[in-house]
From TrEMBL:
GO molecular function terms listed in the Swiss-Prot or TrEMBL record: acetyl-CoA carboxylase activity; ATP binding; transferase activity; zinc ion binding
Residue ranges crossing the lipid bilayer per the database entry: none
Family matches, as SUPFAM superfamilies: ClpP/crotonase
GO CC annotation, single: acetyl-CoA carboxylase complex
Origin organism lineage: Eukaryota, Viridiplantae, Streptophyta, Embryophyta, Tracheophyta
UniProt keywords, alphabetically: ATP-binding, Metal-binding, Nucleotide-binding, Plastid, Transferase, Zinc, Zinc-finger
Protein name as it appears in the record: Acetyl-CoA carboxylase carboxyltransferase beta subunit
Keyword Membrane (UniProt): no
UniProt subunit comment: Acetyl-CoA carboxylase is a heterohexamer composed of biotin carboxyl carrier protein, biotin carboxylase and 2 subunits each of ACCase subunit alpha and ACCase plastid-coded subunit beta (accD).
Domain CoA carboxyltransferase N-terminal: 1-106
Zinc-finger as UniProt keyword: yes
Amino acid sequence: VMDFQFMGGSMGSVVGEKITRLIEYATNKYLPLIIVCASGGARMQEGSLSLLQMSKISSALYDYHLNKKLLYISILTSPTTGGVTASFGMLGNIIITEPDAYIAFA
């Protein structure tokens, strides 16, 4: 779960590592995965480290989603934008959005 109230829910290296570890845990235990997103995108204060999280998380989801054939549900709340939308936000088997949610990638 991402909290937009803290730094706009931005995804930095710590957030990326935690989400990656969550995905790896679910992969190893063959568990379904639900991630609730509310993010302003990648944390620009961290520079390229925050952008690397997009590929890191997507790579972990590749193993989870395609190789293990496990269920991943992505719940997008308002707002979900930027790198989060471009990476794990739109990779779910099922993508659910709240009514009138602001979902964007520029």
